Amino acid sequence: MTDAHLDPTRRHDAVLIFDVLDGNPNGDPDAGNQPRVDVETGQGLVTDVSLKRKIRDQIPLLHPDQPRYKIFVEADTALNTNIARAFTATATPVTKKTTPDQRRIVQQWLCNEFYDIRMFGGVVSTGNGNAGRVRGPVQLTFARSIDRVLAQGHGITRITQTTEKDIAEGGESTEMGTKWTVHYGLYRAHLHYSAPRGTDTGVTPDDLATLWQTLTNLFEHDRASGRGEMDVKGLYIFTHDDAYGRARASQLFSRITINALNTTPRTINDYKIDTTDTEHAGVILTTLVG
To answer: In this structure, which of 80, 250, 259, 278 has its CB flanked by the most CB atoms within 10 Å?
Structure first.
């Protein structure tokens, strides 16, 4: 019998909680790589794109060179090359004026080949052939910190010069830079899985098991000095007993509360995460971390 949270024919809504200590969880390139913040509330932000990247990067580690677990959105790989492969593999005419049936055939090949297309969807109409758009069953929100975060810039130096010209011209031997960190922040994000769309893209129990495993270990294989210490502190999955769902996601999410125990929280122990009032008819809560 498949565990409830691994059943792709049922709807799932999940809460992901993680923290950062002395690190930059998601720099903003438009702001000198400073940690992203809500300018009105001062709460820290981590984009859904950043979280999905961390999931994608773990797939080759979990399923090296395995069929169905290639990654579509990957560094040093042109998207149009993979789209062209799909047209070739399915013997579909390469044209912008594809029929719905032709687009469906190409999309099915892409979903079967690439884990991230199968789970997150994607636009696959950018090549010479138009394969349309795949609506993925998994959607992630931005992560938002529970409280305000303090982003601080730290001046750093290095004694190595950048170019030979710098040395020849006798420039300064010490070069300056800035490293941005958040002293501490506890972040919360939400995830939604649509069973009808999962059926459409061919999601299996193994696919869901892989998703939950990557979220459990989201930062374990993504260490970097600039990100400091990041760790998943909670992963709570609400599983409905049917494909459509027994409650609105907001109803379920509101039953997991996080409150600071003092005015300057600096560790997870400075927060109380309450999951005691999470019962709802037709919904099962599975706690994977917490």
So the answer is: 278
